[in-house]
Amino acid sequence: MYIWDRSRRLTLFSVLLVVTFWSIEPCLADDVAYQHSWINVDGVDAHYIEAGEGTPFVLVHGGLAWSSGEANYAEVIASLSKYFHVIAPDIIGFGRTAPRGPQDYSGQAQAEFLIRFIESLGVGPVFLTGNSHGGFLTQYVAHDRPDLVRRLVITNSLNGTYPIPQQPEGANYIYAPGGHQYQPQSLEELQAMLINYYQHSDLVTEERIKLVYDNYQRNYEYADRRGKAVSFSVESSNENLSYKGKHISEWASELTMPVLLMWSEPGSKIEWGLSHFFTVPGAEMHLLPWSGHHLFTDQSERWARVVTDWLMNEPARPPSVQ
To answer: Residue 297 is part of which domain span?
Structure first.
């Protein structure tokens, strides 16, 4: 399945002219023709995939070296694009969005880039979702620029819902020596990783293996340097996940838009999501079985149906004021 070249121009604030390019490329998923697009954001060619029409729905991936909009969300594009204008960006330093250097290491810098990405597209306010590290990034946007966010969906996110625990458990969440330090990986090694990563082995196709391999080879050296700079300890990792001096989870009670938490077993610790559920005013939470960390891939149709229903209908009604 292929898509055709075209370009479009967006005028921002009646001053800045930005050109978005669509390219001819095969899609990871067989049942939808999503477009590979690029837009200039503060001098960076930001890559994203998009499909559909309607209210913009921005899908933000996590922080693994092989993560990207396509690698994470290709399986749900078909279902979501029936109702929304789906946009899945590669955050700066991931996928095909090349970083500028150490100034893009921090979670805060990545979140600011996400804000500028949404502004540059001129599509806000948007429905917004983030998985894992994306749960931090999207909440940063929701706190800092609530005018850009209609509703927020958080999927299997430690980074966005709970401070990284102290050692020895905390080593599992550090991307530096003493934790998950990035190393060169062969095609065969990444294939074996994916087989263990997903609960459903039929997802590990040749196309997915190649995409993950290409992403990893392109980004692992930068990811390794980034991890050593901002994730060399539990303390530095939590600082990297802070907003205005506090871990992002400590601001949960101040979220002003409807929030849905999508969690899975064994893909993430349910207690992380529950801590947010009991803190975010009016939050809703949905648990799905038989899924790894990428719930929207392992249970793509179910995740898409639950999220679509929640986005298209009124949220839970708060009690009336007496």
So the answer is: 6-312
